[in-house]
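Dear colleagues,

I hope this message finds you well. In preparation for our joint manuscript, I am sending the GNAT family N-acetyltransferase (Streptomyces katsurahamanus) sequence together with its predicted structure, so that both groups work from identical material. I would be grateful if you could confirm receipt.
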Amino acid sequence: MTDPVIRALDENDAHLFDSLPDPLGIGRALSRTVHRPEWKRVALRDGQVVARAAWWGGPDDEHPLNVNWFDFAEGEEEAAAELLRTSPYRVEYQLILPRGWREDPVLRAAGEARLRAAGKAGMSVLVERYQYHWTPECGLPERPGRLVFRPEPDDDVIFDVLRRVHSATLDAHALQDIAEGGLDRAAQAELDFFRWCPSPREWWQLAHTPGGELVGLHVPARNQSGPCIGFIGVVPEQRGHGYAYDLLVECTRVLADEGAEFVLGATDQTNVPMARQFARAGHPVIEERIYLTPGPRD
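The corresponding structure tokens are as follows:
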């Protein structure tokens, strides 16, 4: 067997990326996503594509933010691992999986094979997440009416609220940022994401009790895939009252009022309280994702 040839694609041969089967339906899941040809790489053996990966970033990003499409032919796990291992991009891998994938033997085998290949490339699992997709057919939840919402134009105030929210968080990415750079880094990562989204700044809203006590923050947003729940956060001293539901309902309704035909959302599977609120607000799980972080380069 000849050694695989690993290389990037360009506009002239981008079609090679589509020559492999798509057993996990990643193409359907990413139907609104645009991948740049130069951020696609393949492994070829005797001229045939045996593994592929596509990295993704926003239209103004100079470097990709993650790799979210990674496939390989049967028996080509090692070539696939080498494809990731030799990539110039040290970014997170988002393994996209159908809902309940572990219950289907074929899907489970495909998913576990990709996890093994990524592991051989030095990646490790950070967290598994639920992905939600609300549409008007799901029903628009009624506002509980317990909180007062208003825009907050001062980024410093938003930053402080984010620090308070993340001082006691279940979010794996925030915990990783805190471990590496403290609360300021976690808050800044959220703020950078809000600014990165091509949606109006005035959508960022703080929530207060009628008596004026701060409850938290919600950020309706549009990312590159469409309208989404950008952030839901309740400050620690206000937890235990179910306020995350109020924030999620308001976030959903703001986007619906802006004409959204769907609303995307996500939460860590280990964040059981937030997953419960998504279900209560009528946001169905449409897929699952496993986030893997890159290891150090050899």
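For the figure legend, we might mention the following. The two ends are 26 Å apart (CA to CA). The longest helix spans residues 172-196.

With kind regards,
E.M.
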